[in-house]
Design brief:
Radius of gyration of chain A: 20 Å
Strand order of the largest sheet of chain A: 3-2-1-4-5-7-6
Strand content of chain A: 15-25%
Structural class of chain A: alpha/beta
CATH class of the largest domain in chain A: Alpha Beta
Oligomer: homotetramer
CATH architecture of the largest domain in chain A: 2-Layer Sandwich
Distance between the termini of chain A: 35 Å
Number of strands of chain A: 14
Largest sheet of chain A: 7 strands, parallel
Number of domains of chain A: 2
Number of helices of chain A: 11
Largest interface: A-D, 49 and 49 residues
Order of helices and strands of chain A: EHEHEHEHEHEHEHEHEHEEHEEEH
Amino acid sequence: MIKVGIVGGTGYTGVELLRILSKHPQVQLVAITSRSEAGLAVADLYPNLRGHVDLRFTVPDHDQLADCDVVFFATPHNVAMQTVPDLIKRGVRIIDLSADFRIRDAELWSRWYGEPHTAPGLLKQAVYGLPEFNRERIRDAQLLAAPGCYPTSVQLGFLPLLENNWVDRSRLIANSASGVSGAGRQAKIDNLFAEVNDSFKAYGVAGHRHLPEIEQGLNDIARETVNLTFVPHLIPIVRGIHSTLYAELTADVSLETIQAAYEERYANEPFVDVLPLGSHPQTRSVKGSNVCRLALHRPQGRNTVVVLAVIDNLVKGASGQAVQCMNIMFGLPEKAGLDIVALLP
Amino acid sequence: MIKVGIVGGTGYTGVELLRILSKHPQVQLVAITSRSEAGLAVADLYPNLRGHVDLRFTVPDHDQLADCDVVFFATPHNVAMQTVPDLIKRGVRIIDLSADFRIRDAELWSRWYGEPHTAPGLLKQAVYGLPEFNRERIRDAQLLAAPGCYPTSVQLGFLPLLENNWVDRSRLIANSASGVSGAGRQAKIDNLFAEVNDSFKAYGVAGHRHLPEIEQGLNDIARETVNLTFVPHLIPIVRGIHSTLYAELTADVSLETIQAAYEERYANEPFVDVLPLGSHPQTRSVKGSNVCRLALHRPQGRNTVVVLAVIDNLVKGASGQAVQCMNIMFGLPEKAGLDIVALLP
Amino acid sequence: MIKVGIVGGTGYTGVELLRILSKHPQVQLVAITSRSEAGLAVADLYPNLRGHVDLRFTVPDHDQLADCDVVFFATPHNVAMQTVPDLIKRGVRIIDLSADFRIRDAELWSRWYGEPHTAPGLLKQAVYGLPEFNRERIRDAQLLAAPGCYPTSVQLGFLPLLENNWVDRSRLIANSASGVSGAGRQAKIDNLFAEVNDSFKAYGVAGHRHLPEIEQGLNDIARETVNLTFVPHLIPIVRGIHSTLYAELTADVSLETIQAAYEERYANEPFVDVLPLGSHPQTRSVKGSNVCRLALHRPQGRNTVVVLAVIDNLVKGASGQAVQCMNIMFGLPEKAGLDIVALLP
Amino acid sequence: MIKVGIVGGTGYTGVELLRILSKHPQVQLVAITSRSEAGLAVADLYPNLRGHVDLRFTVPDHDQLADCDVVFFATPHNVAMQTVPDLIKRGVRIIDLSADFRIRDAELWSRWYGEPHTAPGLLKQAVYGLPEFNRERIRDAQLLAAPGCYPTSVQLGFLPLLENNWVDRSRLIANSASGVSGAGRQAKIDNLFAEVNDSFKAYGVAGHRHLPEIEQGLNDIARETVNLTFVPHLIPIVRGIHSTLYAELTADVSLETIQAAYEERYANEPFVDVLPLGSHPQTRSVKGSNVCRLALHRPQGRNTVVVLAVIDNLVKGASGQAVQCMNIMFGLPEKAGLDIVALLP
């Protein structure tokens, strides 16, 4: 059994880790920490866990965490980078769901997050946890940076187009929309039910923190500089991300050829599902599951390819992908604990 | 492996059976029938099942069904009673999720469903599938009538009060509210998103078909005639039933004593969770799971006891409870295939 | 033109007052105060008011308020009672939408609100603003206490039954449900979209602050002591209250007679609409309007009468009713500014 | 008073016409027709109209309609074109909310609607009812084609950019999202609450019927051929359209200059509201109102301009705009009956 610790388990990615890990056949949950809720039974905060998780939140204890095989950080940014260096020294493997180790360039990180990076020395060693692109490096990672939710959907959607060099890399567009759980479990007026329900809006159009992460990822995939316009929107749903991706063809290639390339590229991927041509994936088709579903279109046979990508932001966009990486890191079957059917309706 | 057939799998209880049974360790799905969708891959209708269920809908074939160990009917009422008699003769065990065999009195059934019952001879043999009250009889059932969604929540909520004879049986009230999936997957204007969203209403106040089923069940529990006022409401959510139950105390018994009685009565029930005093269960705490959560109150210390009961109408209120009964009928662990953590948030 | 001031206009009842008053033919908006948002244009906080309201929030200024004909308080409880005494002395008429002056018994108020009442001397003079019961006293009120949202729906629903002395006053039940805007515009985790959406729950079953207000009102109507069990619920909608009321008949009276009594009692009420027998009012049928719709049922012809009552909690349950009272107080047509068709769908 | 008839009033645009016209100071509602609901009181179908509209649905009667000053068609496509020619001959002015007369090229219409156009002779005479572009021609229109909902938002959003010839017309993108009321009040499984809620999807990516309408409109505005990629999405809200528009700058022009051009272009438009730079309009800020709100962005200062446009699909996207056109056609103040504050929250 793999001994697992979770730091910062009171948020939505924390409870989602518990939902998944509590049924994982190879995992023993050792500790879940929260300074603010120390002493509280996890199941008192999240009643869906009653009967499944007996732990109480505890104050973070380095010795206890150091005793784990792997520690997940489900914390806001700027928390993991304080604690991780010590745990790394003590040989623990780390899976960080926050943004702290996603961007390799510390200065770029600072510019977007508005504060200095306090563990820049670890950035080089951190492995970006997108299994479909980075599986080999993930196997041996000691410090894994789980991708953001938007970035996962956008990278998986563009990947085969970029690898095949079929589109104009200078004018990619990602029009994405997320459920409200992506904003986390924080008391903000903007995320109140009465502010969000029965409404829809874009936000962060001038610049969202996921932009540099996505561009870094697309650059890695394309092996050249990519230029992305990224516009996120807020949907009045709890879970789900839908990315509508636009790219302009520069190669003379048919939609059928592109479809075939996507199917082949993802043929052995356990969690990427390329739908038949003409499909329109709904976010609910992946609710609660670790799957990313993709569909391709070429409206009016013109030059623009449209890729539709859906994930559950809390699963493939966060906790599920983190567990998938854990499975790879520990040599377990990649679907262990993740063979979940999406909840529909 | 238990060979399972499903008749009428295009509705919401059908897809929910597939979600559960496709991960059940002891089940082999043999056939799923639908006249209207014969030939279609199940996963084309329900994309959440892609990669989990390979079956196609087929026209019902008695020989194929007769070859199953158990056949589930996930059909509208008045379908099972046409087909079940033949299958019963051929030795198949039946779990009917429709209303056809829930009410023992054929005349009463006819009055509420507006048509004659065509298999009244089987009504006596049918076992009402509420495990918490009827487990012993379920073990040997050949024909099992899975309870309705409202009836499950109301019976589990009132059961210990009635068994202890602590309340006035002549004036029980069940103020229940259901998510829209309870209305099924039928093209009706009343259930359109634009008709239901951002609104709330009661319906069927003059008389809902679940009333006679609930009263029969409460009579069985109380071993005397019970009088219930039942008012269902429609909530703009997909899944979930919340029943707020009112009963007047006739015995001199404290709320703590009642709480203790509930906890003891359900101590060994794998799917009934009595919350601590003062709790308010949310429907989402059981979304996707087979659990019924209960909480007790006695406002202002007056004479009225209020019981709050929540279930997922498609799971404990339908398909999950049906699988629970199957597990009992076939001597399997009662939680097999049902050890699911509710999806929260 | 009536000069109107609003104290505390940043909440939902504040913006709703502005929506209504900005189109009221006899009203001149003079000031809207908010300490926290002083200087901000109202339309920057509430973009729906762009082009309709030019005011900016200002720090409360007693002289400016004293210059108004009427001042509305759209504040949390415990604010109005600090400021009102001075304004009353200076001859301003007050319409308080908060709870400060609804309950005549200062001690009872203290018990439920957990702090002493600082203006008990004004309680006697305060007029409870339920026009359908109290219209004559409202005309001359200098200090008007606008009823709470739940209390409005429950009182209007029970009123004719109690006035006719047809039901058992000792065992009334109000099973109510409210949209989330009733919780106000405060940053609380419990009211986040991701906490509320696709779920339903009861809350405050042990005791909700509207209970003493409702019982006081029902006592006034019945001219005897009334006993109410009141259970509020939270619906994932923005606006709307639905009360399902249960009363036991003690008189030998038919449902048709009761219906006739309701129709007659409310025949001249501009904002109470008694639906035909057999109806099920939806909350959306009153969304944005000042109407209360009622429907009567007597399930199975038994002894329990069920009354369904719907209002928009922000209109007839708060700001609309306050304006209705203002119209009465100033001798204006009662429908002035309130002749609004509900938004459906 | 203008005598108004409405053909096909049972749908959502019909009830919305009634909501607006019943409060319009210059309008007398003469008739509302529906073959299927003839005899039914309008307020029985739409209870929000109780007390506001006394009409009953009637079978369409040409003589009665011919007696009106103006007849609105709130019908599915292919209905107006059957009846309009006769009414035109009899001198009635027509405002058609359906698609029948929006596209000037009968052949193009046929290709997208899959049937021949039966009144091609009227297409030349039909005036496209987008007041912001076509006000002068609307004044004298006898046959007015009210624009579609998506087309209104997209055209208003791109208009100043195209009139100023600042962007590449060959690669415009409109990523739009609509509330479910846009699909009308028809019994379709796809639009059930349980199919739509808590989910999000694109649809009609291969080709939506609004594409040729939008391209025709943009061509008219640009006076050259425009190429648009249009991807509509379905939001789980009742009302509202949000269009996120992408255009590539070809001119050397700053965002501030563009903003100034938008503000100037729409300065005298009563129903277009250009928000300050950096804004993100929510659909709820226009719910129930006839306003289109626009906001401009230029992410990262790169070459792509992003325009955000929101309308209420049933108001500015249908019935409100139709009434705005009526006001222009009959020389009334353009805001008559339309000075409505959006319902927020």
